[in-house]
């Protein structure tokens, strides 16, 4: 099965930066879309950033101009560069990838979530 492994979360001061990485492993034919979500206690999971196989990107209004999603197809990795972080960016961040595996079976896989905490 396709698996996702996240890294890069942690504690950072307001105004600082973090880069989240999501490594997708397994027998992959193609990754058609990658996404980063975030969730705080008591709230629904929010789509933060989206990227397609054609590198079309879209962002939540709250992060536009500060966050950048990208992918490295050779490494099957999706990134989220987070700049000018604010305390309200504090959340658990989740990676999602959708695509086709080597047997032409669709996959929709999630990472385990990583905590991002931004202090004042």
Please, could you describe this protein's structure?
This protein has 120 residues and is mostly beta strands. The chain is 0% helix and 61% strand. The strands form two sheets. Strands 2, 4, 5, 6, 9, 10 and 11 form a seven-stranded mixed sheet that branches. A hairpin with a 4-residue loop joins strand 7 and strand 8. The model has no long low-confidence stretch (mean pLDDT 96).
Write a short abstract of this structure.
The protein contains no helices and 11 strands. By secondary structure, the chain is mainly β.
Unreliable sequence segments: none
How many distinct beta strands? 11
Helix content: under 10%
Please state the CA-atom Rg, rounded to the nearest Å: 14 Å
H and E string: EEEEEEEEEEE
Note the main sheet: 7 strands, mixed
Task: Report, as a whole number of angstroms, the end-to-end distance.
Answer: 40 Å
Binned strand content: over 45%
By oligomeric state, this entry counts as: single chain
Mean pLDDT over the residues: 96
Structural class, from secondary structure content? Answer: mainly beta
How many H/I helical runs? 0
